[in-house]
Amino acid sequence: MKPQDILLLLKLVSIQTPERDDWTDPTLIALHSVRALAQATGISKSEVALSLQRSLANGLARRDVRTDIPLAVRPALIEFLTHGLRYVYPAAPGSLTRGMITGGAAVPGPARLTTGDALAPVWPDPAGRGGGPAVLPLFWSAPEAARADARLYALLAAVDGVRLGEPDAANRLVAVMAG
Q1: CA torsion angle for 93, 94, 97, 100 (degrees, to 10)?
Q2: Which of 37-41, 83-87, 104-108, 151-155 is least confident?
Q3: Final residue belonging to a domain, choices 55, 87, 119
Q4: Model-level pTM?
Q5: Is residue 64 located within the same domain as residue 38?
Q6: Element spanning 162, H or E
Q7: Residue 117 has pLDDT above 60, yes or no
Q8: For 82-94, what is each residue's pLDDT tens digit?
Q9: Which of 87, 111, 133 marks a domain boundary?
Q10: Cβ within 8 Å of residue 77, ≥6 positions away
Q11: What is the superkingdom listed in this entry's lineage (predicted)?
Q12: Does one domain contain both 129 and 73?
């Protein structure tokens, strides 16, 4: 398992929405091509292919029987993300910087309780709108991919909440994965 595998699996989840349930739709099939996934995530085409192989082998992805497109296996992915990710790819807040807000502060939903003057963690980015402790993204291209896909951004931010050990992060991640 590599960090880009998680980014790619989360991209597959962001594509798989209730509105997009016709797996025979050519437009939807095109979104799952190696080329489209590479372009959407910033991962090279060869690494997307290898990542898909790893995810299919470990049971975090499967191929649709009708169309052969790769799909994330949500229950398995949720189990891994909520119970194992923080041990495999932990995150630790660094020095204060400008950047793109991540963690629970970036996850849509009810207002989050903060303690005192706590600042939201950010992915370092000079063009970011927030400021707080720096957190290295799961994969270097994650912030750019998140800018282009709001659902992917929410998923990556929720994953960072788990990586940071934020209270109730696992429940927020499950909620975002379901939405």
Answers
A1: -40
A2: 104-108
A3: 87
A4: 0.91
A5: yes
A6: helix 150-164
A7: no
A8: 999 999 999 999 9
A9: 87
A10: 9, 13, 60, 177
A11: Bacteria
A12: no
Q: Which residue has the tokens 């995150």?
A: 91
**Per-residue tokens: 147:** 């800018």
* Residue 179 confidence (pLDDT): 76
List the domain range (segments joined by +) for residue 76.
3-87
Residue with tokens 């793109």: 100
Q: 40-75 burial by CB neighbour count: b if 16+ within 10 A, else e?
A: bbbbeeebbebbbeebeeeebbeeeeeeebbbbbbe
Spatial CA neighbour of 142 closest among 87, 89, 71, 83? 89
Alpha-carbon distance 32 to 68, whole Å?
Answer: 10
φ/ψ bin of 116: left (φ > 0), alpha (ψ from -120 to 50), beta (otherwise) = left
| Total domains present in the chain | 2
On whether both 77 and 117 belong to a single domain, the answer is no
Positive or negative: CA dihedral 167, 168, 174, 179: negative
The span from the CA of 27 to the CA of 94, in Å, is 41
Which three-class secondary structure state does DSSP give residue 101? strand
What DSSP designation does 99 have? Answer: E
**Among all chains, which residue has been given the structure tokens 């699996």?**
9
